[in-house]
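User: Please predict the structure of the protein below. I'd like the answer in structure-token form so I can feed it into my own downstream comparison script.

Assistant: Understood. Taking the following sequence of 115 residues as input:
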Amino acid sequence: MAIIDGQVHLNHLGIEACLGAMDAVGIDGAIIDQYPPTGTRLENGAYRYAYAMSEQAVLRFPARFSYVARIDNRDPDRDRLIAEARSHRGCLGFASINRRAPRWPATVTARFFAR
């Protein structure tokens, strides 16, 4: 059975350091939650996350990495971002950020899993 780390915070130490640590303890693959997060603050205060390091890890080592997208519930393009997330190579899930904002309809979440 493959051993998968369910949440790796890939950070400034880089992809190679992460692979070295994984190899040292027998981890076959990892789901990246990129930290610290990068992205852009929107006018309404929401944060639109970017995944450059996660996407690079998936591109270079597709058998070892996948990632989770962070989506701010206040983002005006939230529904589109959720619907498009699965089309991004290696994106296997998403985390709802700012849960105090109004929730999205179940149909939006269903589109993510309708792959």
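That's the full token string. Strands lie at 4-8, 29-32, 38-41, 47-50, 65-72, 91-97.
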